[in-house]
Each structure stands twice: as C-alpha cells, then as structure tokens.
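Troubleshooting: if your tokenizer reports a length mismatch, compare your output against this known-good record of 118 residues.
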Amino acid sequence: MHFEHRQQRLLPWPRFVKRMANSARFAGFLIAVSLAIGMAGYHWIAKLSWIDSLLNASMILTGMGPVSPLYSVGAKLFASGYALFSGVAFLSSIGLLVAPVFHRFLHKFHLGEDGEAS
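Known-good structure output:
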C-alpha cells in the first residue's frame, strides 16, 4: 500500500475513497481466507459439520470463543493454533482499515493552512 509523502499535497477526496475501498477489499479478503482456513480445519480435523465449522471459525476469528466442544487432541491443537492465528489476522485487518484514515489525519496535521507542507 502506497501513501503520499508528507511533502506532497493531501490526496483528493475521490481518490481517498478509492483507497479506503481498496483497503476494505484487502481486509475482507484476509478475513475470508482466515475464515476458510478455520472452517476447513474444524470440518476435517474436528469432524464438525460445515455450518458448525463456520460458527466456530467465525466465533474464534472475532475473539468470542468456541461454541462446539472438541474431543480429539488434534482438534484441540488446531483450535489453539487457529485462535493465535485469528488474533493476528483480525487485528491486521483492522489495521488495514484504519491505516488510510490515520495517515490522512497525520498528513493533514502536517500541512499548513494553504494545503502545502509546512
């Protein structure tokens, strides 16, 4: 992701909206891939149905915790690893969404009243 330098002009509003849409698209892709990994693991390792796998993966991904009890050692190890991975993936996706707004705020803060770098 490329942001303008502090000595460049502030990005025009339509291009900023496009940048936000791209960030949201990338964050959504990261969440979708993370959810797919969790669903596959819960389905094939924990032997849960697809709908229960979706429920458990989405609950873990958002930090809510598991729903279905896990009985095998492999399922518990997968759930532990997926929980650690999910924490990083979810926070990374939030960072992707917030980065353009934060950058714009800092960039505007460094500009003078005339819109030029100070």
